[in-house]
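ok so for the tutorial part 2 we go from a plain amino acid sequence to predicted structure tokens. step 1 is just haveing the sequence, like this:
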Amino acid sequence: MKEWRTDPTFAMCRALVDGADPASFAGGAFDVRAVVAGVQSGAHSRLLLDAAPWGNFPHGDDARKAVHLLHTGGGPASHATDVLGGLCANDSRAAAALAVPFLIPIATDAHHSHRAAALSALSGPARARHFGVASRDELLLHRTDPWRHAPGGYDDYGVEVTGYPAGWSVAAARAAITAETPVLRLLLDDFDPNIRIDAAYALATVADHDHTVRSALATRFATEHDATVRAALLLAVAETTRAHAHPPTVWWFRERWQDRTEAPEVRLAAAIGWLCLTDEPATEDLHQTIDTLATDERAHAMDALPWMNAAAGSGESGLRRCMRCMLHPEEPEPWDDPWAFSL
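step 2 — the prediction. this is what the tokens look like for a chain of 343 residues:
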């Protein structure tokens, strides 16, 4: 393996580490936002996968090979999704962001054997450092830290582990998903509940200034019968509302977790959404609702939701971690040492 400081794919990152101004690269060949926009433009709509400038971004060749595997269907899809998901988990998502416009056509092709895998992977780079995050302040946010403003032109996303501007990767991925909102919205009506869940997860990252995506998610919620999908739709509504404020939705979430006719998964998702959309203290009624519904069985069932899967950590399920971080933030993180042994 090449040492990253001598790898030509890290050229921009090396320059930034040496003090270069990120603005000097804006709009150029090393700006993944500009590259993704070029891939999606009419003039480049037929751009071949191998013609994209993967080499301009850290781990670009790994991302290209992963997308190629998904496109051809020539191998286990998990190999590709592990690569793309690993880049995001390791805070090196620029190349994964470039993969997004190539993943969307696979994900929206009803006849493609790897459409589910492509859909599950495409929205990862649109969220900054969301793995293991479960607090009211940070869950459902697209950026790294809601309280920090990074200096040097990096906005409030800071930098990735490679030195690449994290906000550029997130913006590129979100722009690619936003541009394809109409075709992704169709997946909310897919026959496969897992596709509907992952479609909601992707649509939650759309730049939804006019609230059309929020309305589409709420409309689907009104007709959806699968409890887990309904929970996913609620979390997606909460995420897009967190990015694009809509005060009536906060009250709507309160009504959902108070509704005793709803399935437990739905009420728990509504409770999480409400806690993230308001700074009001959790009521005794909310505590009782969560204590009653958040069983181990329910936590396991809700692992199917990508939000909960990402929030998990230190031996806790995503639901358990959210409940601890949101309702009992004073409690310490559980210690999970795989090498520990009893004396």
